[in-house]
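Supplementary Note 3. Input sequence used for the single-chain structure prediction.
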Amino acid sequence: QRVISDNGISNPNNLVVGQTIVITQNLPKLRDIEVNGYAFPSINMNVLRKTLPDLTYLSIFSHDARADGTLSDINDRPLINEAYRYKTAPIMVVTNRRSEGGFSSSLAHDILINDEIQNALIDNIIKELRIKNYYGLNIDFEYIYPSDKNNYNNFVSKVARSIKPLGYILITSLAPKTSANQLGLLYEAHDYPFHGRTVDRVVLMTYEWGYIYGPPEAVSPLNKVKVILDYAVTAIPSRKILMGIPNYGYDWTLPYVKGTSAKTLSNIQAVNNAFNVKSDIKYDTKSQAPYYNYYDRNKKQHVVWFEDARSIYQKLLLINQYNLAGASYWTIGRYFPQNSLVLNSLYNIIK
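The predicted structure, written as discrete structure tokens, is reproduced below.
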């Protein structure tokens, strides 16, 4: 009866597809949390405005560090201005990506072994922070050679000593590790205890188990995310951790063939596609993620894994269970209204 009266529904047996129903709950919030969202400068501004009320930080991706210590330029001013309008802190993101795209181990190495280049890079970062009126910095160096682990730690320390006295916060992005000695190019140079001591926040990239060139599975399976958090909170103060949440899904053609790629789609697109192909959406309780199968016009089978309100709810509960600082979304480029509703039903968002 409450739903009927709140929505002015005259005939509850005559609802239509696409009709919006508001369900009001006066449940107490679990607590206050921080929320980060990554955005490309090309984001649709209407999508950005819809999302900014749900964010503490807007991380603008990205200024790419060059081998001479300079930075690539991006059209970030419109996003910075909008962020401040919504009392959201704009964060400058610096990466070790090549101009043609993709993270570069060799580029990171060239920077991390040369003090002169590092000093120039830090000077340019500070200049950009000041000119653009950023609130803080996110260093997102990935695929660092394991032999550069100490060099990376030294670089992050140098950045922290340079920008934190100026009033800027420092965030680093970390690969999803299950233990301190986990092997692999993505993991070894990311020293959890060091980052936990040195920076203000860490973003754990707890997604991409199911990835564009890999075999089908949930993008961010809850059972695997928990294993990462189990280790992370032993090495990093929990209230420094922003848990990564994906805002997308993948559509794989079956049978999966190594080297082939999946199609990326928004969570809304995934649901609309299931409706169009008349496929029943199933829910995997182990990974806490929705999925479905269908056949295309060429009679090829597909499987789609994505996120919905149920999977987002389960992920967001982990923030309270592990006493984390909050969440970080990659990316906010596709508006996901179900996420906003679930997020705001559980937590107050710090602005």
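The longest helix spans residues 115-132. The longest strand covers residues 31-39.
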